[in-house]
Structure formats: C-alpha cells, structure tokens
Write a structure and sequence with these properties.
heterodimer; A: mainly alpha; ABC transporter involved in vitamin B12 uptake, BtuC; two-stranded antiparallel ribbon; 15 helices; 4 strands; 77% helix; B: alpha/beta; Rossmann fold; 2 domains; seven-stranded mixed sheet; five-stranded parallel sheet; 14 strands; globular
Chain lengths: 321, 401
Amino acid sequence: MSIKRGVFPIVLLAIAIAGGVLPTLVGSALLLTLLTQAVINAILASGVGFLVRQNGLVSFGHAGFFGLGAYIVALSATYHVMPIGFALALAILAPALLALLLGLAILRLVGVAFSMLTLAVAQAFYELVLHWRELANGDDGIAAELPPRILGLDLAMFQQPGSMFLICWAMLILLLFGLRLLVESPFGTLTLAIRENEERARFIGFETIVPRAIVYAISAAIAALAGVLFTLYNGFVTPNVLYWSLSGEALVMAVIGGTRAVWGPALGAVIFFLFKDAAGDLTEHWPAIIGGTLIVVTVLLPRGVSGTITMLLERLGARAP
Amino acid sequence: MQINRRKVLVGSTAATLLSVARPRIGWAAKDPIRIGVPTAISGPYADLGNQVKRAITLAVDAANAAGGVDGRQVEVRYLDTEAKADMARQQGEKLALSGFNLLTSAIASGEALAIGPQLARWDALYVSTINKADDITGKSCVPRMFRVNRPDAADAAVVQPWLKQQKQQKWAILAADMAWGRNSGMSFKKAADANGRTVVGESYSPFGTNDYAPYIQKIADSGAEALWVAITGRDGITFAQQAKQFGLFDKVFTAGVSFIADNQVNALGDALKGVWGIINYSSTLDTPGNKAFVAEWEKKYPGTSPSNFEGETYVGMQVIFQAVQKAGSVKPGDVAKAMAGGSFDTIFGKQLMRQEDHQLLGPNFFGYVGEVNGKLKPIITMTVPADVATPPPDGSCKLAG
C-alpha cells in the first residue's frame, strides 16, 4: 500500500508480460507444469489472504470452496447435467453464495470460533464426497469427462502446461488488479475500518455484517476459481481437494507471502510450491523442512516476504534524493 | 611435416582422451532404462511400498551388475504417493516428465486409474504389479497400461471353487472403501450368490481407519458364520489385532485377499494362524525361475524370503526388462508395442501378455496361515492354472490400435 499509487499497475504489467513470455523461455515441460500448479495455488492463496487482509479473519476451510468449485465442474461434465459454460459459472457462484449466507450467520463469531466453523463446513463436504461413492467414486477420485471444446477453446489448451500456464497467469494478474481496485475503493476502506474496530464503525452508522459477508463471499469465489482451473487442468479430482490440509497449506502460503499487500499471498504460494517440490526431491520428510521454514519466516519476517520487499523498497526510496 | 615435442604431446594427449572416451561414447549411445516408481513410501500402505522397493532394488542391482539390460544401465527413481490417487497423478507426471517414463508399482488401484488416462500425454507407460481393480484392464484400459499381477477377477475365479467346499452358509464382508476393496466385495458377493451362500453384512472401512471396533461389532451382530476380508497394509494389521482382541477369529471363520500376505503374517504372528486366503505368489513355488529368484533374494536380504507383493513386483521388472530387450529401445511407445501380445520368462514360467487387455496370464492360489519349520507362513493348498485363473476379457476393454 505504501508503494505509490501509480507504480502498482506498471509493476503488475511488467510482471504480467514477464510471465507471459515465460513458457517460450522455459524448455522443460516439468517446470512448466509445476509453475502452472503453483499459479493455481497462488489464486487460492490470494483468496485466503484477501479474507485475512480485509476481515482480519483466518479461514481453515477454504479448501471447501476450492473443492466445491472443482467437484461442480467435474461432476456436471461427467453427468452431462448442463453446458460446460453454465457449469463453470455455477462452480464459482455457488461457493460464493454459500459463503455469503454462511458469513451472515457465522461472522458474528470471532477468532477461533469462526475458524473452527469454516473447518467444520469444509470437512462436511469432504466427508460427503468421500462416503457418497455412487456420486463421486469416493477416495479413488473421479476423472472429469470434459467436453472437447470449452468456452470456444480446445480442451487441449487447458490441459497442456504451456497454454494453461498462460490462462492461469492471466487470471491471476486480472485477479490481483481487481483486488487492488477493490481494496482502494470506499468498500475496501469500509471493511478495513470494520476490521480495525467494528463497534466504532457501527456507531458511526455502518452496517458491519453484510460488508464482511461480501468479503467472505469474494474470497470464496476466488478459491472456487482456483478449483475450477484445477479441474480443467488435471481432468481429475479426489476428495483431497476438500481436505483440511489444503486449507492449511493455503494459509501457510498466505503467511509466507504476507497479507498486507494483495500480491503477497500469491508470491507466498509460488515460493511455497516450488520450495515444497524441491524439498520433496531432497527427502521424504519434507513436511519437517516446511514446518521449520515456516517458523523461521514468521519469526524473522513477521510481515511475510511481501512485507519485507515493500519495506526494503521504501528504504531505498527514502535514501534516493 | 615436422614433428616437434608439442605436436607429439598434443597428439598423444588426444589419443589418450579418445581411447578413454570411446567406451563411454559407446555406453552413452544407448539410453539408460529409467524406471519411475510412484509408490507409497508413507501412510497406511508404506509397508507395501517398501516391499515394492526391495524387489525393484534386487532386480535393478542384479541387472546392472550383469552389465545392464540390452547394453543399457538401469536407473530407478521413487516418489512418495501415500497411496493417494491425486498424489500418484502428480508424482507420476513428475517422474515421466523428468525422463523416468517407464512407470510401475503404485499400490492402490485408484492410483493406477488416475495415472492411466495421462500416459499418452506424458509419453509414458505403466506396469501394474499390485493394483487389482478389474477396470485397469477393463473399462479403463489404455494402450500404455499393463498388468502383471492377478486382477480381482482372477481372485474371484479362485474363490468360486473354494467357496463351494466350505460349509459356512452366512457370510459377512469387510473391505477397504476404495476401488480394490469395493471390487473384491462385489466379486465375493457374486461368488456367494453362485454357490447359494447368503451375505448377511457388508461393510467398507475408509483407507487409514484406526478404530475397527464398530465394524467388528457389526460383523459379530450380523450372525455371520464366516467373514471375507479385503484389507491390507497397516489397515489390515490394525484390523487383525483388534479382531483378535475381540475374539472375532475364534467365533467367525475368516478368509480374505491380500490379508494373509507374508508381511501381515510376520507382523501379526499367531493372530492370523488358521486364517485362509488368496495367495498370488509364494516363495515355495516349484519352478526353476522362482528357485533362482529365491536364492538370489536370500543372498541379498539374509534371513528373509520374498513376499507375495515382492514376487509380483519382481515379475513386473522381468517383463519390463525383456520388453526393452525385445524392442531394442527405451521409448515407452516401443516398449509398449513389445509388451502387448508378447511372451515373457518370469518366476512363474512362461507367461503371455494378452493383446486384448494387456493382462499377463498367470496362475493363482489359495491357502491358509500355518506353521512351516516352526515359522508361520501362508501355505498353498489349492493351485488354479493360468488359463482358469485369468478369465477371458469381458469385452469392456477396447484398445484401439
């Protein structure tokens, strides 16, 4: 936020273009597929981070929205219940609507109680797909029978790492741009005010639950978008996309990246994903390395990687004549 | 041309370099065989993953010590899938795209079913050595997927005649809630129907269950005289321990598949004594190939003999090596071509890889856990020959080209 207003779009544009030419530079299909998955994770983490930033709330259940988006696409494609375009829209809108209604009910709760309820809701969906074998083939997962063309594009466009990376990258850039506009709008300022002191906001005449529920719904829609991209790319979903460990990972990504900047969680996600992959190559006990690193990051960089970058930039800026 | 010291020096250095380099160039001209193993290194099936690793290590070390296969070195890389389908897909992709594109030996059937549709995209092939779900060589078959181990249908073919001889009328089923367990439960029900037995209870426990008390209680309450179990790995051990404490095996006659596998017996000892089950491979098999294999095994891993899953995985390695030799190539497409319809020398003898569905034909066995030389071990009492044990393809697999 402290970076000057005009700078953000320019930097974002530069990063967007840099990402856009990446597939032509990267020869390795393996690296490209990793980057594609990292960007999908970045979108999910952005949703989680946005909720922390605007509402000051920690969700342990964003895998629920991610998985719901993923399963709605996979199931509607497999059972041919509706055209794929509708399915994609529904996969993003239904989790958002669910979050809105849920938010109106549970946002009155604070802290751990809220986090636990988000966890419970997500786990309920997990148990549902795990046990309702006739619907989604349980633990073994379901291969989505996606149509050959989606929104006018060949299915292969979504399933080849080179082209899918570009699609996901464009989505991420648009998303960050949109979030930036949102947090700088009056609505963004209002939700920040509510986050800082809800009582005072109410006292000066603002309704405080609905704006927070809207933030929750937006963050759920972002997670669902990531889930949709996940299904399009992999063509295969298992109940693990709804499991709490994914919610936890998304939160870890947001913490590593830092939530003060809207782009922080996305950066954290890419770092986390590539780091996890490298650690996984090194040892079977990679979760221990991740855990250790997380402790170091939270102690040494309390504002996350993005917070540290911003701070360094500011210092440089202050020194310049 | 004047010869001076420098020219001599340069010339001789070059000659030395060439002579050193030549065998290397010759070696490098043939690509190594790169085997990718996405398997369970952690989680409830980690012990099965460990057995896979031991069998592959033996096969690869022996091949490299003998100068490689088809003049190629064999390299192998393992990545942990925790026996989860989505992880298998991820790790399989990673292995295949990093050049380890001859994939083999995932544990859960769901893993193979997740890998199968991706094989063409990754330009890889997959050889199942543990996965039993019929769909792998049935409706989900793909040109790049093969199976050397016995599918569920082959287990059912053994259960049918065995069940006929059993006096128990009322049966309960307890199986893992995954592709294989569901498949096995369904097949057993069919076998029971065909033999006029009734299934009085049917339960499926999730992968990684820690508390089997509710399932045990349900079986005891169902009035079943006998129980069919399709649970393995750590889950199988947990269930057997709790069932033993409950005295279930004393009240209810018990048999199963992958339940009395060697490592289960080693871990549980007396708890499994007298339990019946399907045996897909036994180290006691009387074929020249198996005798050589067991001897080699005992030298490498003193004090042990190859287990059910170790034997089956070793067959997979034999088939892959022979197919590479036959193809003269390590390209998955070429190896797949050499595999389909081919005949292979394995520890079971000569085995055919069926063209229609990519299932290797092999015998199957039934037996119980008993004492051999003071040691508990699965003992074979019934052998079903390959042509009966591997039922013909049911037509659900359509391999184009």
